[in-house]
């Protein structure tokens, strides 16, 4: 589907750019964006005010929490450190890649010496 600013003929595929048409489209986009920017405070300004109020409440509560004494967690509720994966998983040495295409899938599980 050709762009609005280009013209293609059925006989030849010559691209013709209409710069005046593209400029008018750009001007319309800019005009709509300016109009939306001017209308935003009256339509959606309450959201900005609400966000500022919420942020101030959060900062105040954060300051108050920093002055409070921290509660100690009982030892039985403290999480243990993570166990390294090497303790659970043992990966042996892989054999060379199989020579035939029929041995590609499952070739490791079919070998007795690699099933440990």
The termini sit apart by: 61 Å
Number of DSSP strands? 2
Reported for the largest beta sheet, the result is:
2 strands, antiparallel
Which segments are poorly predicted (pLDDT under 50) over 5 or more consecutive residues?
none
Radius of gyration over all CA atoms, rounded: 34 Å
Derived structural class = mainly alpha
What's the pLDDT, averaged over the residues?
77
Helix content: 40-55%
Following the backbone from N to C, one meets helices and strands in this order, namely EEH
Strand content: under 5%
Overall form: flat
Order of strands, main sheet, comes to 1-2
How many DSSP H or I helices?
1
What would your notes on this structure say?
The chain is flat, with a radius of gyration of 34 Å. By secondary structure, the protein is mainly alpha-helical. 42% of the residues lie in helices and 3% in strands. The protein has 1 helix and 2 strands; from the N terminus they run ββα.
């Amino acid at each position: 589907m050709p762009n609005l600013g280009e013209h293609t003929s059925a006989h030849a595929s010559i691209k013709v750019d209409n710069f005046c048409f593209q400029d008018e489209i750009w001007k319309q986009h800019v005009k709509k964006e300016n109009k939306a920017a001017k209308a935003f405070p009256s339509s959606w300004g309450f959201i900005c005010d609400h966000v500022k109020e919420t942020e101030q409440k959060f900062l105040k509560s954060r300051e108050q929490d920093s002055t409070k004494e921290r509660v100690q967690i009982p030892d039985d509720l403290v999480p243990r450190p993570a166990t390294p994966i090497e303790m659970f998983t043992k990966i042996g040495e892989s054999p060379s890649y199989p020579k035939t295409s029929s041995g590609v899938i499952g070739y490791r599980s079919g070998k007795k010496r690699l099933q440990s």
